Amino acid sequence: MTAQLKSQLRKEAITRRSELALACPEFALLIASHVEALKIPHGARVSGYVAMGDEADPSLLIEALTTRGCEIAYPRVHIKAHPLVFHVPVKGEHMVKSAFNVPEPRPDWPVSTPEILLVPMLAFDAEGYRLGYGGGFYDRTLAALRAAHPVRTIGIAFSGQEVAELPHEAYDQPIDGVLTEKGLRVFTTRRE
Fold first, then answer.
1. Could you give the dihedral angle defined by the CA atoms of residues 118, 101, 110 and 37, in that order, rounded to the nearest 10 degrees?
2. The pTM is what?
3. Domain ranges of the chain
């Protein structure tokens, strides 16, 4: 039942996100203006992503973090149904298209283990649960990283992507906060 509900929610969220993207063309600039609120230390290892279509665009935020000395890495699917692997771009080289037609780093670029992850999504709720695209890549990745060391997860979304509640299962990994055009929101719900 949860899988069917999530599938329906994804369809609705995609439509809603398209509307939000049209209504807020300055999104990338607005979230970049909130870079100080993130309190990301100089030199931190941060994972980013390349926005596809009307996905919330973190490019100017990533640019601001780079000027603050952060190491930026991008996710790559190395093995299906396994955690993502993060790679640091090599100057002068370009990303490649994955089997999912998503821009990914080249497999020979240096590997990085992020301390902070900027996470894309279709929707989020007040408990910090996110609705992804259904592949489970970020849930597996966050579970593996959290088992190894503390990580901080910041969702990147339009404020209108918030929903009252999302169904979640034991393997769903909540995020610590979300950065929208309105600023940073930290989720304080205690999780056991």
1. -10
2. 0.93
3. 2-186
What distance lies between CA 14 and its chain's CA centroid? 16
Burial 74-89 (b: 16+ CB within 10 A, else e): bbbbeeeeebbbbbeb
Task: Give the position of tokens 């970020």.
Answer: 138
User: Residues, the chain, total?
Assistant: 192
- Do residues 153 and 119 make contact, with C-beta atoms less than 8 angstroms apart? yes
Q: Which amino acid is at 107?
A: P
Burial class (CB in 10 A: 0-12, 13-18, 19+), 54: middle
pLDDT digits (tens, 9 = 90+) for 4-58: 888 899 999 999 999 999 999 999 999 999 999 999 999 999 999 999 999 999 9
In this structure, which topology does domain 2-186 adopt according to CATH? Rossmann fold (3.40.50)
Tell me how far apart the alpha carbons of residues 158 and 17 are, in angstroms, rounded to a whole number.
8
